[in-house]
Amino acid sequence: MTDTLDLPIVASSAITPEWMTAALRKAGHDVTVANVTGKRVGTGQVGESVRFTIDYKGDAGSAPRSLVGKFPSSDPDSRATGVNFGNYIREVNFYRTLKASAGITTPVCLHADVDPETSDFVLLMEDLAPAQPGDQMKGTSVEEARLVLGEAAKLHASHWQDDAMDEIEWLFETKAAPKYTQPDLIKTLWQAFRERYGDAIPADCIEIGEAITRNFEFYRSYEGPRCLTHNDFRPDNMMFGTAEGGYPVSVVDWQSVGYGCCMADVSYFLSGALKRDIRREHEKDLLTEYHTRLCEYGVTGYSFEEMMKHYALYSFSLFNMAFTASMIVERTERGDKMFFQMLRGGADHVLDTGALSLLPN
């Protein structure tokens, strides 16, 4: 990553032709920017993404005509979440130090900087268009799910059982990292969720929520082989290629990247990306192919049977994210619909895997 000491961290509205010129020159493009305009893109609630269209003075050569920048959320509550949970520092550090070895397809990063004191940050990345963003509300096709799990296998195999990851403070859920998801916090968020949405929460979801919050310490401490995990591995954080071009699938939003069980990503993704009947029909084939890919990338000693036990346990992942995230980010109409869809998909997955029987009480 290029030196950033003399390039200030600025808000999206403060990106000028001079700032963009300096950023591009640091990234190796000998250009002068004449004009830059920004338009917000994406549906992220903890960060703000902006597509910048760039005009140059003279010959621009291979310099990009557009880039995507990422910045802290403009909503105070969402920004506070990003700061308090270390999300902004985590994502910048992923692009600085782990992207190259993580194996998975992500956008090329031209500039990444963060203030460790305030968590103000700026990321400047490749514009992945004409690829199109996924949509949690619409889900994916089975073929798209297959592509996604292929990328997951690359990520998970890249640092499989790599104890050096446990020494990284900014990675989520390492031995060196702060413990953000304490049982008392999870219980508080669940009760707040129940109070806010009341009778709109289905009875079977209430049963699952009470069970997982009662047993959260067991759930969080469950041991298994560990690897790099994305931890918000869902269609909204993916870009899918189109007939016009783009990578087949690429993964964005690395604010929650951590070191944990691979099924925390795989089970989470399949809980919400496929409709229930389609998931039931295809999940064994998809999981078999994922496991085969892990083995091809060098993972040993992880049987399909053990993986399936973890798949069942981590079927709680999407359910947990639905009620926790809904209470710590800006509330929106789309957000309410999305979180309830995630809650329902997660609950169905828990019921289908029999995961409640895996909890102590």
Low-confidence stretches: 1-5
Count of helical regions = 12
The CATH architecture assignment of the largest domain turns out to be: Alpha-Beta Complex
Give the overall pLDDT as a whole number.
Answer: 94
Total separate domains: 2
CATH superfamily of the largest domain: Aminoglycoside phosphotransferase (APH), C-terminal lobe
Given the C-alpha coordinates, what overall shape results?
Answer: globular
Largest sheet entry: 5 strands, antiparallel
| Beta-strand content | 15-25%
General description of the model:
- This protein is an alpha+beta fold and 361 residues long.
- The protein folds into two domains: 12-126, Phosphorylase Kinase, domain 1; 133-358, Aminoglycoside phosphotransferase (APH), C-terminal lobe (Aminoglycoside 3'-phosphotransferase, Chain: A, domain 2).
- Helix content is 43%, strand content 16%.
- The strands form three sheets. The protein has a five-stranded antiparallel beta sheet with strand order 1-2-3-5-4. A three-stranded antiparallel beta sheet has the order 6-8-9, covered by helices on one side.
- A hairpin with a 2-residue loop joins strand 8 (238-242) and strand 9.
Task: Give the secondary structure arrangement, pairings included.
Layout: H1 17-26, E1 33-41, E2 47-56, E3 66-72, H2 76-84, H3 87-98, E4 109-114, E5 121-126, E6 132-133, H4 142-158, H5 183-197, H6 203-214, H7 216-221, E7 227-229, E8 238-242, E9 245-251, E10 258-260, H8 263-273, H9 276-296, H10 304-313, H11 316-326, H12 333-353
Antiparallel strand pairs: 1-2, 2-3, 3-5, 4-5, 6-8, 7-10, 8-9
